[in-house]
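Sample pair:
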Amino acid sequence: MSTANTDRKELRKMRRLLWLMGVVKIPMIHYTGPKLLQINDETVKIRVRLRRRTKNHLKSMYFGALAVGADIAGGIHAYYFANKSKQNISFAFKSFQAEFLKRATSDVTFVSNDGAKVQEVIKEALETKERVNRLIDLKAFNKEGEEVAIFKMEISVKIK
């Protein structure tokens, strides 16, 4: 099977898992309706649409919707690698820092290029059998490709 077919199959699988997680475990994910655009060993891209549910009184994306998008973009990478390695892991975010550069007045795409860091954390947790923490970086872009926010999140991973 070609890598393009494998990537598409993996993307469909992770989209379904994200939808299920939103319906069953984390209703805020379902409420904001994010779309997984890309996932591979290096990169995750998530889009959250600017609509009534995600908009604030200034007609820009609400802080909570931005936090949900960042949370998913960082967290789904851990889920992706755990699923790939068939490991049962527990992960959460220990800290969250955000810098808002400009108002997000359109759909927002959240990008994480820290797949190697997430993979490293899972590998270290497997080896040590202890909880391992690491900072990952994410960026948020509007439809015009302008950076609207920068996030630093500390992922915490433990193998169950």
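The chain has one domain: 3-159.
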